Amino acid sequence: MGLFNLSENDKFKIGNHLKEKIWNIRDDIHELENILEGITHFLLSRKKLDDVTKDLWISDVSALSYNTISAWEMLKSVSDGYIEHLDKSKNYLFNARSLLAKSISQLAYYKEELAQNLIEELKSSFEKCWSVFFDIFNILTPEKKNSGVIKRVIKVSDSEYHLPCSICGKIAVECKIGYGHFDKQESLVYSGITHSRSLSKSLANKLFKILKKEDLSGVHSFMKEYLCFEGMDAYCPECDKIYCWEHYNARVEYDDGFYDCTMGECPAGHRRMIDD
Ligand SMILES: [Zn+2]
Ligand SMILES: [Zn+2]
N or C terminus: which one in the chain shows less Cβ crowding within 10 Å? Predict the structure, then answer.
């Protein structure tokens, strides 16, 4: 963890105006907090749910609050020079947006008007926070130098390939021979933007041949055949490009509080289910 050296790169010199803007997000978060408190009271006062489910749903509301506040804490530390906390701030905010979708799906379980009103308030308050955060993210995100030369495929070694986001260059997909979380033996490990899974090592040569040719559509077909119906989660078939979680604008969807799927919408507006 290194303190960012302002003299090395003027791009990250953060003016007082921006610092103030970051500080002022506090007001929007405060408004969100009030609404979340109202939702907690609402959930506590309903008799329709058993206590265990109720506790789970209330803890989702707290987690939404925690992730939004953490995104803000990280952003404040960026303004103190820790530019590497920018990605952490974004990740907290993405988590918060997933939890927002979860809480909304839970509130929708109640068919009463009060629940509908809470959903509307929650949505608009979070959107406000989201947009002030992103105003600042966009100012702080360093432009990728030579953005024209982001590679389609990066060969790390004979047994490891990385696929960078076509917009920001961040690694979105890794395919390598190694050990997945629960693997007892070496496997072909796929790590995408929504999940990691292990495939039989015997498939590695077939995949690496396709990767060598930088044939992303071929990799997608391969994943459709061996990994899952949705294929490669970070890939937009219509653009023939890779996107990271942020640039695929990935959104988790819930049904009555249960994970349903993840949808991606690329910058060109192509939308598809990327995880089920
Ligand atoms: Zn990206
Ligand atoms: Zn697309």
Answer: N
